[in-house]
Please model this.
Amino acid sequence: MSMVRHFLDIYRLEAEDLRAILDDAHARKQARKGWPQGRADADAPAKDRVLAMVFEKNSTRTRFSFDAAIRQLGGASIIANAGDMQLGRGEPVEDTARVLSRMVDAVMIRANDHEDVERFARVSTVPVINGLTDRSHPCQILADLLTIEEHLGPIAGKTVAWVGDGNNVCHSFMHAAPKFGFRLQVACPAEYHPDLHDLAKGGNHVMLTGDPQEAVQGADVVVTDTWVSMGDQDYEERLEAFDGYGVDEALMEQANPDAVFLHCLPAHRGEEVTDAVIDGPRSLVWDEAENRIHAQKAVLAWCFAGS
Model:
């Protein structure tokens, strides 16, 4: 039996596999231009396959994009909130994984704890995809890279600036930098710096500073995210710590003249980004949101190709 292909973290995959997934995302998006959203791709690689989606956290983009993705690949989906399942009542993660492995062809999990997704994948006999955890958000980064390449060409050799919280999305950008050959310049307040293990995975492709102005120097892309994520209890402290880290037009001017702006959404307008930037000509946030579908289709197709 072939090895089950999980998509848990970018650093776990070979650069060639990641590049192939991203190329497939580009190709699939181009091939269906002008089609209705519900029509299946010509090759329908997920025909007769069912994707289970399990949500421990609320979701808009992950939920809609994965549902659209599996349909466009020719498959079907079953969606459940963890609270509706025995998982939410204390059933061991491993037991849920064993059961779902016999009922569906792949599982996407949006979880609170990264370790739960890893435990699930260890016993699952079908592909498991990380739809977001407290530690990483690999699907988001593939959508971001797809968006950047559509507008600026190949990501290799480009400079990406991350301004704000050293969170799960930041971690996945760090994982991606050496795999795709781009430079990542991260500006965070000291008390909200990224995890040092994840920073180490970026190697010499990642630079860490406390100064947003320094981070955006020479940047082709400026990225931020909400300062207060779901579950964070320290709203006031965070607002104080991130004072001066908001992305406004003045900060964007410090980046390269053709630099673009990304944000995985939802945005707290007036906090991490101004209306003028997110609604402005450099913003690619709506393309970025749509590209979740195309990136995740490529991930799913890669997972299914292994079985």
Remarks:
- Strands lie at 50-55, 76-81, 106-110, 128-132, 159-163, 183-187, 206-209, 221-224, 260-263.
- The longest helix spans residues 285-305.
- The two ends are 8 Å apart (CA to CA).
